[in-house]
């Protein structure tokens, strides 16, 4: 698995995963409102699919929510599926 760095781009409202040379591998859009972090859309660039990029983005989003005391609404199917497979984040999922 390659090394990816995930950062927050608040101007765009998304978390971005980049390779060591700065290439954008994927991103997860988010919205913050009323104590909830909503994750409506996740994109992994085709050449990076199957390399853990989406999981790194999900982990970053849920870790951020926990650190900031936010609930998470995993509105996109990828984030919802990831949360289902990770019982350690179930306490963050809105409506659970």
Would you write up a description of this structure?
By secondary structure, the chain is of the alpha+beta class. It has one domain (5-92): Aminopeptidase (3-Layer(aba) Sandwich). Helices cover 25% and strands 33% of the residues. It contains two helices and five strands. It has helices spanning 53-68, 77-84, and strands spanning 5-9, 14-18, 24-33, 36-44, 71-73. The protein has a five-stranded mixed β-sheet with strand order 1-2-3-4-5. Strand 2 (14-18) and strand 3 (24-33) form a beta hairpin. The longest helix is centred in the middle third of the chain and has 16 residues, at 53-68. The radius of gyration is 13 Å and the shape is globular. 33% of the residues are buried. The mean pLDDT is 95. Keywords: Transferase. This is GNAT family N-acetyltransferase. Residues 1-96, 7-94 form the N-acetyltransferase domain. One of its GO terms (molecular function) is acyltransferase activity, transferring groups other than amino-acyl groups.
